[in-house]
Amino acid sequence: MGNLRYFGILSLLLLLGVLGNYYKLPLFFGVDFLFGSIAVLIVVHYYGIFWGTLAGMIASSITYYLWGHPYAIIIFTLETVFVALLSRRYRNFVILDAIFWVLLGYPW
After folding, report:
1. What is the model's pTM?
2. pLDDT digit string (tens) for 20-51?
3. What are the UniProt keywords, alphabetically (predicted)?
4. Could you tell me if 97 and 71 are in contact, meaning their C-beta atoms sit under 8 angstroms apart?
5. Please, are residues 39 and 11 in contact by the beta-carbon 8 Å criterion?
6. What is the per-residue pLDDT for 108?
7. DSSP per-residue string spanning 8-27
8. How many domains does the chain fold into?
9. Is 13:59 a contact under the CB 8 Å cutoff?
10. What is the rounded CA–CA span in Å between residue 49 and residue 46?
11. Cβ(107)–Cβ(94) under 8 Å?
12. Structural domain of 52
């Protein structure tokens, strides 16, 4: 029963990650605000680096359909890996995510 709950919650979070990226908030000049990283970072926190990275790849894969290029998949997966690796030492996911986007994510 515990295993079913474990994978059921993981599956729900994966679905929320994909839906969070699919139902985006368009801002300006073709820039969209995506919400899938929230579910992905929850996966990182509760399930670890492996499942978090896999969740990041799965959730960001919908951006290929939305935008027609694979670059967002790469950037969002790198975001997940960056936050997951540094969260072992620093616990504030919001700060780590902000650091990623200022230093690595935005310049791309």
Report:
1. 0.86
2. 888 888 888 877 778 888 999 999 989 989 99
3. Membrane, Transmembrane, Transmembrane helix
4. no
5. no
6. 60
7. HHHHHHHHHHHHHHHS-EEE
8. 1
9. no
10. 9
11. no
12. 1-105
